[in-house]
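Worked example 3 (structure in, sequence out).
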């Protein structure tokens, strides 16, 4: 499992504060809609950190959905809504 402590440990290895912030933002908001035009304007290294964070966040969501008590809304709120959760 990718636990929050491991994500923090990875974030702490990123020396540039703006890249670290992008990583944490990507992890926190993984899977949510975003404006593609905004992403295109990002510095390539900041964009890479954001995308790495998103990968961690999505992996955490997939792992969480595997629990018996999990709701599909935890992975995708729109799908959960359609399923009546």
């Amino acid at each position: 499992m990718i636990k929050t402590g491991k994500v923090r440990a990875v974030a702490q290895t990123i020396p540039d504060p703006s890249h670290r912030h992008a990583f944490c933002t990507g992890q926190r908001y993984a899977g949510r809609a975003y404006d593609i035009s905004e992403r295109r304007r990002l510095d390539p290294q900041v964009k890479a950190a954001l995308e790495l964070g998103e990968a961690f966040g999505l992996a955490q969501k997939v792992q969480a959905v595997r629990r018996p008590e999990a709701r599909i809304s935890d992975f995708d709120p729109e799908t959960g809504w359609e399923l009546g959760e």
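Notes: The CA atoms of residues 20 and 35 lie 21 Å apart. The chain has one domain: 4-82.
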